[in-house]
Amino acid sequence: MSILDVRGLSVNYGSVCAADKVSFSLSPGQILGLVGESGCGKSTVAFGMLRLLGAPAHLSAGQVMFQGQDILGMDDETLRALRWKEISVVPQSALSALNPVLSIGEQFRDTLAPHGAEHLAVEAMERVELDPKYLKSYPHQLSGGMRQRVVLALALALSPKLVVMDEPTTALDVVVERQILARVLALQRELGFAMVFVTHDLSLLMDFATDIGVMYAGRLVELGPASSFKAGGRHPYTQGLRKSIPPGLDEDRAPYSIPGAPPRADQPPSGCRFHPRCSLATARCAAEEPPKDHFTVQGQANTARKSVHRVSCWELNNAS
Ligand SMILES: Nc1ncnc2c1ncn2[C@@H]1O[C@H](COP(=O)(O)OP(=O)(O)OP(=O)(O)O)[C@@H](O)[C@H]1O
Ligand code: SF4
Ligand SMILES: [Mg+2]
Question: Domain of 113?
Answer without folding.
Answer: 97-159
